[in-house]
Structures are given as structure tokens and as C-alpha cells.
Amino acid sequence: MLLDKVRYIIKKHRLIERGERLVIGVSGGPDSVALLYVLNSLKRELKLTLHIAHLDHMLRKDSCKDAEFVQRLAQRLKIPITSGQIRVKELARKGSLEEIARNARLGFLFRVAKDIKTRKIALGHNLDDQAETVLMRILRGCGLYGLAGILPKREISGFQIIRPLIEVRRREINAYLKQRGIRPRLDASNLEDIYLRNKIRNRLLPLLEEGYNKNIKDLLCNLAECAGMDYDYLDKRALRFLKQFRKLNLKKIMALHPALLRLVLRKSIAYLAGNTRRLTFRHMQELEDLIYNRPINSIVDLPGNICVIKKKNHLSINKKAQ
Amino acid sequence: MLLDKVRYIIKKHRLIERGERLVIGVSGGPDSVALLYVLNSLKRELKLTLHIAHLDHMLRKDSCKDAEFVQRLAQRLKIPITSGQIRVKELARKGSLEEIARNARLGFLFRVAKDIKTRKIALGHNLDDQAETVLMRILRGCGLYGLAGILPKREISGFQIIRPLIEVRRREINAYLKQRGIRPRLDASNLEDIYLRNKIRNRLLPLLEEGYNKNIKDLLCNLAECAGMDYDYLDKRALRFLKQFRKLNLKKIMALHPALLRLVLRKSIAYLAGNTRRLTFRHMQELEDLIYNRPINSIVDLPGNICVIKKKNHLSINKKAQ
User: Chain A to chain B, count of Cβ pairs less than 8 Å apart?
Assistant: First the structure.
């Protein structure tokens, strides 16, 4: 059952080609352990070469037990493994714990992928994670991109992150593990948004399922899929514009459809700032006001030390010296 | 304050041109009464010609009092009025009460607009209605179009529905009315989704505001605005395709981006079925499966007596005889 479903997801989203090498991020929790077993079962059929990556965040005293557990798993399945350690808390003195843990985790996965000469990394996010993420994004405020939630396939810095379990319920994963007598470690918190996510998981989603729509999780995941598809189309159109016109010529951008203009602006800002996570709806409205209504040489300051100046013929986006 | 805001909304969404004739739908409830007063205040500035339309749904015993109230309002403001009556309950024997009431209301507004030789109709939906609608759509399942919620400007059958209060809070409307000593009738239920909407209004939104994000209503409205903009862009691209290629040539539609393909299919179906309200995510997936995977002459049946046949070179969408 689960195997068929994952096969279907892989095909539908074109996640894996025959003969590929894959890094699998394995925390030791149910999702990543199930992912490991499933991909191991598909190994021969898809001619895959698998490699496990485990990063110990050293946030709990017994986190080394997760590492040992994953080591034993690797031995049992005869799959090579790279383990790493990182003292997130020490690094985090300089910034947000979430962001630093996320970057450290990605950096580690990228290094392992590079070592084994692949660009593809599989992670164990499931349908419930997806529903929680979409709801969390809605509650924090988002647009189309945020609604797309966790993408089944995503490029970051030239690496491809794939999620073969993204349409599988947590319930199905647990049933699969139980049936096979596999006992994973308790899910190590992924550190991200742990407070809000738990509240959404344990209180809001059950309330919505009971009082409003028992299929709410599926609906949120369908919404994410539609939003992801629509965003991808807009994204491609915006990229095409940016490749064609390196400079943001005022006349040219004013002739764009407003939906495309917003995306062109976001992408230009992300290019300098690294991301647009702190860019709000109000910022975008201010930029539109700058472009359409304010006099030449007006300036809009944005998060991430970005400033946007309306020049005579073009829009100039700059990163300020820190 | 409210006047400035409505002026801003009208400008931003280009709702009204100077010198236009407007039908205003006035139920007698706070929203439509405030809309009437605000547009009356802007009358000279925008050189508007106003006309009130009131439809009595005859669902409550005292609904004629709403009609009398709106009549007196029209006299006081010296604005011509057309009143109508409709026994929704009798009509509704043949179908859903919501749908029939909605169509009857629109039909009445269109007739009044035609009589006074205009195509523009103003309605009183506000920001709270918008937030409730978006949340309701999410809870029932929707894509980008559903997320756009109540559009500030919308074409239906050649008429243009505008909502100048769509970014105004219910609270602001009530404050405006109180300050001017205007006492509207209690909001006549608009019949649509009354049970779910009330539950969302009175229970879910307060819970989300208190426990998750006090700005949730604004965020839902921002989301609606972004989704509306993005949808408009996709819609224009899909329309362009449909104008260029009347027949759904299989090769041509398979070369489309999947986001555009879905919209092209939806629009083709809506053209025959009247709308796509009963078309679900699963139906769309089935159509994609038909196009990409099933053999020639395969058929997919859809709600609204629509059937889609995969021919050798094109996709044939037909309405079955009833």
C-alpha cells in the first residue's frame, strides 16, 4: 500500500529518475525511518544508490541515542552513512535558533550530497506536516508562494530536495512501521516554529476536523498543490522577464501585469537579500506606490538592509553596506 | 475617515469612473445603508447618478418593513428606487435555496441596471465578509479562484459588480452609521451558507484572533487580494489560449503548463455547464489522467451533465441531453 503510493508520488512529481544516487536525511523519527525503508524497498526497481545523512543538533541530552539508532539502522540495511554534529545553541547566539538550525541542517546535507557526487536529497515530510504548514502560513500571513507549503521537489543552491512522503498521512506511516515491527525514535523536534506548529497540530486541526470539515487536511494539501503549480507558472514568467531585462526599466515594469510585477520585485530583492521572508504585504504595497505614484529619487527601505530607489528610467535595488 | 477610505478603494481598484450611473443594492442592513450614504456623499465629486434597488425575499414575516425602511431612505436622500418581491421559498422547491436566491437577486439587479441604462452595480460587502468568505472557502476546499474571495470588481453576464466597502471593517461601518445617527435594519440574512458563515463569524474567527493571530482578518483579506491578482493573470493567459485555439488540440494542451491547462479545462467546462462550482480537485486530476494516460475514446463524466471524451487529436467537451 504505502509502497504503491510512494511509487505514484515519485512518478507524478517526477522526483526520482532510474539509476540516481540519493542522500536520505534520517533523524531517526518515524517519517524519515519509513522513508528510508520505502526507498530501500524501491532500490532495486529504480536502481538507486542510497546514502544516509544524520545530523545531531545536540539540543537534548540523549540526542546521541538518535545517532546510534540511525547508525544501527544503516548497518542493518547495509547503507553507507555520514553522521555529523552541530552545537546549534552555541551558533544561535548570533541569531534565530530556527533559522540557524535550518541552515546548518541544509549545509550538512549539501556537503554529504557533494561527497557522494549527487545533487538529490530525500526528506521525510508527510501530508500532516503539509496541512500544518499551510495552516501556519495562512495564520502568519502569506501569498501564493507561502500557500504552496512544503514543495514535493525544490531547488536550493543547485541541490534538489525531494519529499516522496508528502502525500502520505502520518497515520499511514505509523501503520507501516508497526506492521513491519520497526520502532523509530520519538520524532526529534525539527526546531522550526515548534510552539505554533504543536498548537496547530494538537488543537486547531482537530477542532477544524471535528467542527468544520473532517477532510480539512486533504483540502489544505490540495490547496498547496494547486498553489504550488500556479506559483511555478508565475515564477517561470517572472524569470523569463528578468532574464530578458536585467535592469528594472520603469516603463517595462509598469507595463507588467501587477501579479507579475510583484513577483519580479520579490525575486530581485531575494537575489540581494538572500530571501524575502521578512517582506510583508505592506512592503509590496509601498513598492507599488513608489513605482506608480512617488517622485523620482524617492526611496523605500526594506528589511535585510535593502533600499529601493526610483531613478528616472529604472528602479534601483541596492544592498546597503552594514 | 470612511469617506477617504472608500475614495482610496475606488481609485485603487478603478471601481467607478466620473459621470457613471450606479445601481446600489440596498437590503436595509448596515453595510448597504452605509454604502448608500457614502456614495451619496461622493455623488457630486464623482458626478454620479444613483439608483437604489431593493429586493424583498419574503422569507421573514416582517421583511416588508425592510422595504418600507429603504423606501423612506430613498425619499430622504432623493434617490430613485426600484423595489421588487420574490417568493424564494416557492421557487426553491426546484433546487437549492442559496443558489436560487442568489440568481434571483442578481437577475433583479441586472433588470434594474438595464432599465436605468447602466452596467454597474454597487454592493455593500465589507472586510469582515471577505475574511469569513476566504476562511469558508478554505474549509470547504478551494484553489486560487476560491481564495480570491469576494472580488472588488467582477463581470457577470456583461454587468459589473463593484464593492467599494470591501476593505472596510464592519466595526468602521457601524461607527460611521452611529456617528451620523443612522439606524439601519438588522442585517437581513443573505441566505448564502448562513449556518457555516455564522459559525465562522461567531466562533472560529474570534478563536483564531485570540489564540493565533489578532490580525487574521487582515491577513485573509491580503491573501484574497494576492490570490485575486494572481488568478487574474492566469485567467488572462488561459483566455488568450482559448481565443487562439477554439478546439482543445491534444498536443497543444499537453504542451501547456499544468497550471494553465487546469484553467483552460475549467473555463471550457464552465462555458457549457454555466459554472464549475461542483468541479472538485479529484475531477481535475481525473481529467489530467484522461489527457496524459488513458487510451483514445476514454470518457470522463462530470457534474452538470458534462462529459469529456479523449478523441484522437483533441479533447471533446459536451453537454449531455437531459
Answer: 103
